[in-house]
Amino acid sequence: MPTPTLEQWREQVRRWLAATLPPKGFDHDEEPDDYAVFHNLSDEEERALLDRARAYQRARFDAGFQALTLAEEHGGRGLPAAYATAFAQEETGFAVPPSTELISVTVGLVGSAVAVYGTPEQRRRLARAFQRTDLLACQLFSEPGAGSDLAALSTKAVREGDAWVLTGQKVWTSGARFADYGMVLARTDPEVVKQAGITAFLVPMDAPGLTIRPIRQMSGGSSFNEVFLERVRVPDALRLGAPGQGWEIANATLAFERSASGAGRRRKGGSVGDVVALARRLDRTGDPLVRQRLADLHVRAVLHAATVDRVARATAAGRRPGPAASITKLMASQTLTLTGRVAAEVMGARIAADTGEPGTFAWTGHLLGAPGYRVAGGTDEIQRNLIGERVLGLPREPRADNGAFSRLPRS
Amino acid sequence: MTASTAQTGTAQTGASTLDDEELEALRDTVREVCADAGGTTSVRELDENGRGYDERLWRVLAQEVGLAGLGLPGPYGDGGLAELAVVCEELGRVLAPVPFLGSTVLAGQVLARCGPLSTTALKALAEGQVHALAVADADGAWRPENLAVTAQPAGDGWRLTGMSPFVLDGTAAAGFVVAAAGPDGVDVFTVAAGAPGVTARPTECLDLSRSQAMLLLDDAPAVRVTVGGTGATAVTEGLDLALVALSAEQLGGAQACLDMTVAYARERTQFGRAIGSFQAVKHRCADMLLQVETARSAVLRAVAVQDDPSALAEAAAVAQSWCCEAYAWVAEETVQLHGGIGFTWEHDAHLYFRRAVADAALLGGSAHHRERLARLLGW
Question: Which residue numbers delimit the Acyl-CoA dehydrogenase/oxidase N-terminal domain (chain A) (predicted)?
Answer without folding.
Answer: 5-126
